[in-house]
Prior knowledge:
Blueprint: E1 8-11, H1 16-21, E2 32-35, E3 53-56, H2 64-72, E4 77-80, H3 90-95, E5 99-101, H4 108-124, H5 126-134, E6 152-156, H6 160-171, E7 175-179, H7 185-191, E8 194-195, H8 198-204, E9 207-210, H9 224-228, E10 234-238, H10 247-256, E11 259-264, H11 286-291, E12 297-299, H12 308-327
Parallel strand pairs: 1-2, 1-3, 3-4, 4-5, 6-7, 6-9, 7-8, 9-10, 10-11, 11-12
Bound molecules: 1,4-dihydronicotinamide adenine dinucleotide (NAI).
Amino acid sequence: MNREEKMRVAFYDTKGYDRDYFKAPADLGGLDLVFHDFRLCTDNALSADGAEAVCVFVNDKVDRACLEVLAGAGVRLVALRCAGFNNVDFTAAAELGIVVTRVPAYSPYAVAEHTVALLLTLNRKIHRAYNRVRELNFSLGGLVGFDLHGKTVGILGTGRIGRITAQIFRGFGCEVIATDPFPDTEWADAHGIRYIDLDGLLSASDVVSLHMPLTPETHHLLCDATIGRMKDGAYLVNTSRGKLVDSTAVISALKSGKLGGVALDVYEEEEGVFFEDHSETALQDDVLARLLTFPNVLVTSHQAFLTREALAAIAETTMDSVGRFLRGEEIPTNRRVG
Ligand code: NAI
């Protein structure tokens, strides 16, 4: 098959580690994989011209206008190489005859372990100790943390990631309470975890950890009112989606001491900031800049998924979906979105 006949898949918002893991399936006669480093949006969607499929990540903006350009360019599949799918307009995709797929599960362990790593780092001040010791400052002032053992951890969303996170906290000897519109009571009973309503969870938890999807119902679920119902000095961890949390409410609660610590792997305005090196430029986002001034705030740049195992699984599942689609085969229903 010559180059002109190869089917093309255009990848967006890619980094070196994506290119390392994504390989064309051998049986399709060689796919032409085109890697773009920019994020897909309406203005640049014509770059997909000639591609049967596009592969996008969490901050590509696949709204109706973008999908219309993609459809005009001949794109028939949008393959999300992530679990969350809030950045795609499914209604528009369906109307335009574009199939949307995602990777529902790759490594829930990657995200759950990062969640716990963030909390431990923040609570035990490892990030501060690391910097201190490197300057030969071996003092311990200001590094007092708390035992996780015996504390109450509230898990919002007991899907794949929330369940693993809950189990890890049980391993620390925490009491774990949870809320989910679809409770898995068999799992909860097996692990000594108790379901409770949201208000009960907020008022009883020393640590609140978010693991539900971003939907119109969950947008800014953590706001002035709900944070106000949390325990004084409680810790908040968000490795799910930035817009679950009202950042200005978090800043107020940090200033008043209502929140004792906040660990974020996601931020509501992360698009265009996270995944990029801004070290040579002025940060334009004043809310993020303010958050970064608090000694009890720890931010990572949406890296919870970033393990070798997760990257390999993401690439494998995504290319399996692309391959199935291009061969005209069924794609597992839990991978199809919308
Ligand atoms: P999942 O779909 O397996 O579980 C989500 C759970 O949240 C479900 O059980 C659902 O019933 C529950 N839920 C929905 N609305 C709720 C509400 N209002 N209150 C409480 N629970 C609610 O999803 P999974 O795989 O566990 O992922 C969770 C989230 O983690 C994803 O939606 C995604 O946004 C985020 N994520 C973040 C990553 C990162 O690198 N930081 C990587 C992968 C996922």
